[in-house]
Design brief:
Length: about 260
C-alpha cells in the first residue's frame, strides 16, 4: 500500500499532463512530454532504458494521434488507449507468456481509452465532478496491475543468466530466486540491502555490455544501458568474480550462507 498509492497518484497526474490539448499555453508540449515520461515511470515502478524508451514511444504516438485526428469524437479515447499501451510496454514485456501479455495490452487499451474519455468529458465540469472523474481515472489506470508482472530486478537477472555462460549464469539465477524470496518477505528492504541490489544491477549491465556475443532476444535496454560505467579493459573473468561476490554478499545478508 505504501508504494501503490504514490504510484497511482503519479499515474493520474502524468496521464492528465500527457493529454493536455495541443495549442494550449506554450508549455503544454513540454508538460505533455513530461507526462508521458512520468506515466511510463509510474507504470513500471523503476527507471531503466526500456522505461525511457516506452515513455518516448508513448509521446510520439500521442502527438501523432492529436495531429491526425484532433476533432474526431473518438480521438480522446484513441489517444488514451495508445498512450497507456505504449507507456506500459516495458511492464508488458515482464509478463510471462504471450496470452498474459496480450491480456495486459488489451487491459491497457481499454483502461486508457476509458480514462481519457472521462477526462475529456468532465475536464470542464464542477470541482466535485472533476474529483470524481479523477478518482475513476485512478481506478482505471490501476486495472492492468491486476495481472502481476515479474519484478524488474529478478527479470533482469533471469535475462542475463540466459545470455551469460557457466557459473556466472548459475549465480545470477540464484540471485533472481533470492530476489523473489525477499519480495515475499513481510519486512520491507532496508537501505543497505537496496544499495546492494542496485550495485548488482550495475554489474549485470556492465557484464552484458561487455559480453562478446549477447543473445539476440535480449532487449537492448538490458544489453546496453546508456551511461553505464563499464570499463572495456576490465577482464571478463574479473567482472564475473565481482558478480559472484555480489550474489554471495546478498545471500549472506539474508543468512542463507555462512
Amino acid at each position: 500500500m505504501h508504494r501503490t498509492l504514490p504510484r497511482s497518484l503519479l499515474a493520474v497526474l502524468a496521464f492528465h499532463l500527457a493529454l493536455l490539448p495541443p495549442g494550449s499555453p506554450p508549455w503544454s508540449a513540454l508538460a505533455s512530454l513530461l507526462g508521458t515520461s512520468l506515466l511510463a515511470l509510474a507504470v513500471s515502478a523503476h527507471l531503466d532504458a526500456l522505461v525511457v524508451t516506452s515513455g518516448a514511444l508513448a509521446g510520439l504516438l500521442l502527438a501523432a494521434t492529436q495531429r491526425l485526428a484532433p476533432a474526431l469524437p473518438w480521438s480522446p479515447a484513441l489517444a488514451g488507449a495508445l498512450l497507456l499501451t505504449a507507456a506500459s510496454a516495458e511492464r508488458t514485456a515482464r509478463l510471462p507468456g504471450a496470452p498474459r501479455r496480450a491480456a495486459h495490452l488489451a487491459l491497457c487499451g481499454l483502461a486508457g481509452a476509458g480514462a481519457a474519455a472521462l477526462l475529456a468529458r468532465h475536464g470542464a465540469s464542477t470541482p466535485i465532478a472533476q474529483g470524481a472523474s479523477l478518482l475513476l481515472v485512478g481506478v482505471l489506470l490501476a486495472l492492468p496491475r491486476l495481472l502481476p508482472a515479474e519484478d524488474p530486478t529478478a527479470h533482469l537477472l533471469d535475462l542475463a543468466a540466459t545470455a551469460l555462460p557457466g557459473p556466472t549464469a548459475e549465480a545470477l539465477r540464484g540471485a533472481a530466486e533470492l530476489r523473489r524470496w525477499v519480495l515475499r518477505a513481510p519486512i520491507a528492504p532496508r537501505r543497505p540491502e537496496r544499495a546492494r541490489w542496485h550495485h548488482l544491477r550495475q554489474l549485470v549491465h556492465q557484464r552484458l555490455a561487455l559480453a562478446p556475443s549477447p543473445r539476440r532476444d535480449l532487449p537492448p535496454g538490458y544489453r546496453d544501458l546508456p551511461g553505464s560505467p563499464a570499463a572495456p579493459d576490465l577482464p571478463l573473468h574479473q567482472l564475473d568474480g565481482q558478480l559472484a561476490d555480489a550474489c554471495l554478499a546478498l545471500r549472506q545478508m539474508h543468512g542463507l550462507d555462512p
